[in-house]
Design goal:
- Helices cover 35% and strands 21% of the residues.
- By secondary structure, the chain is an alpha/beta fold.
């Protein structure tokens, strides 16, 4: 498939503030025409709870539980629900508007990226599929949860009817960023322990509910896989769907400078994470 050459970056495991700053720096460089469209893989150290942009930290997250478990907390620039980033590979896709590979709408972009994810998962032996878009379909009544993986949406990736990849997207006038979590392992007890519930029985009920809705790669392969193995398969999936080999390159000096700026003045601040004000970014 013709189109601009894609860049691939694996930034390894970083803290939550840095991970969000890197994604925004890549987007800023791309929007300025200083970087090509980019696929990035990364992990989280320490494990981190990320909030959707519109969620309320005090209402949704048990901060004391996060501190007790040594978890970081950061707000994403994208919407959606909270995610516990632990045993997973996170991807991000950053591109300018008008990339030939992407349709001009949110769901179309989700669809193309999910197709790449499905190809990569199948290379690991995981028979994943993409949820079709059914216009006008109403959601069933279900327990309230702050967690992203509680409700699969159109074009998201499932295995055995359970959600395996949770993604969020934000569109700008000139570009788009989508990032998402590909679960390698799954600790439901830890996931529900960091959410706020009014009563203990609500926590137990939510754990049972999520057990029927979420899954991970290592539940579907005979031998457990790790971050590096998943990264290799998923890169092949993106290359196959995007139709061209992706060139590996590090962050540019311009991007590195932006990472430090966004980390220190935005993603590590209470103003951002509590949404008392919105520090300027892209």
């Amino acid at each position: 498939m013709s189109g601009p050459k894609w860049r691939f970056i694996d930034t390894g495991h970083r803290d939550g503030y840095t991970n969000m700053a890197v994604d925004e720096a890549l987007l800023a460089a791309c929007l300025k025409g200083l970087a090509p469209p980019t696929v990035r893989f990364y992990g989280w150290r320490p494990a981190t709870v990320s909030l959707g942009y519109f969620q309320k930290l005090e209402k949704e997250i048990d901060v004391e539980a996060c501190e007790r478990l040594g978890l970081g907390i950061v707000r994403r620039p994208t919407g959606g629900k909270m995610v516990l980033h632990d045993d997973e590979l996170t991807y991000s896709v950053i591109a300018r508007q008008g990339q030939q590979i992407f349709p001009g709408d949110i769901l179309g972009t989700y669809m193309v990226i999910s197709q790449a994810l499905v190809v990569g998962l199948k290379k690991l032996g995981v028979e994943a599929r993409m949820i079709p878009h059914r216009k006008g379909e109403k959601r069933r009544e279900e327990p309230r949860s702050a967690a992203c993986f509680s409700v699969p949406s159109s074009h998201e990736v499932v295995v055995g009817g359970k959600k395996l990849v949770g993604s969020a997207q934000k569109r700008y006038l000139d570009g788009v960023i989508q990032h998402g979590s590909i679960l390698i392992g799954l600790d439901l007890d830890k996931l529900v322990s960091v959410q706020k519930f009014k009563r203990p029985e609500h926590r137990r009920r939510m754990r049972d509910f999520l057990a029927g809705r979420m899954t991970c790669i290592n539940e579907w392969v005979p031998d457990k896989v790790d971050f590096a193995q998943v990264a290799e398969a998923m890169r092949a999936g993106f290359q196959e769907r995007f139709g061209d080999a992706m060139e590996t390159s590090p962050l540019s000096p311009f991007e590195e400078e932006l990472v430090e700026k966004f980390r220190e003045t935005k993603y590590s601040t209470e103003a951002w994470n509590l949404r008392r004000e919105s520090p300027v970014g892209v």
